[in-house]
Amino acid sequence: MERSYLSIIRTNFMKQGHLLTSLGRSLLQRHCSTSLTDPSYRSSPHFSGHIPPDGVKKAFSLSGGPGGQHVNKVATKAEIRFDITTADWISKDLKAHLMKKYPYRLTKTNELVIESAKTRSQTENLTDCFTKLRNLLMECAYELDYLNRKPSEADVKILEKRAAENAKRRREEKRRNSDKRRDRSAVY
């Protein structure tokens, strides 16, 4: 069974009694940057893909749920938050879109809050928080870039062709239903 690089690092550092040593911090910083191997990411003027680690506040707390004594002793639940209004690493349009699309994730002071208690590891939960935040920002940037753009001439032609086909299909269906009703009342 192949173990992930992150789980190997985590277990080695937990054995030594360190949570985030310099290597752990560099690993965390790597997870704050866009993965160059991620094919789904496209560069956007609204979000570069990089989340500055000092641009977010990190906090850890006790994770709820089952887990026996471990859950009561170790603060593994990770939470990251950042003030949308002062974040200079995302565009103003993206900030407005985030505030409109995710009002339930915002505090009264316009801080966006992301939490994770998915695993028993603090480091993995923190990485999961950054991944969730990056995916959320990339999704909003995609919506701003692609879904709100004006359709090209090719797009318009395709949409007109589809509308014509749908109208033709609807007329044929109406004609068939009309013929069916007419045949029911025909006297032989």
TrEMBL record:
It holds the Pfam family RF-1. Its EC number is 3.1.1.29. It comes from the Eukaryota. One of its GO terms (biological process) is mitochondrial translational termination. Coiled coil: none annotated. Residues 163-188 are annotated as: Disordered. GO terms for cellular component: mitochondrial large ribosomal subunit. Residues 174-188 have a biased composition (Basic and acidic residues). One of its GO terms (molecular function) is translation release factor activity, codon nonspecific. Transmembrane segments: none annotated. Residues 50-178 form the Prokaryotic-type class I peptide chain release factors domain. Belongs to the prokaryotic/mitochondrial release factor family. Mitochondrion-specific ribosomal protein mL62 subfamily. This is Large ribosomal subunit protein mL62. It comes from Steinernema carpocapsae (Entomopathogenic nematode). The lineage of its organism: Eukaryota, Metazoa, Ecdysozoa, Nematoda, Chromadorea.
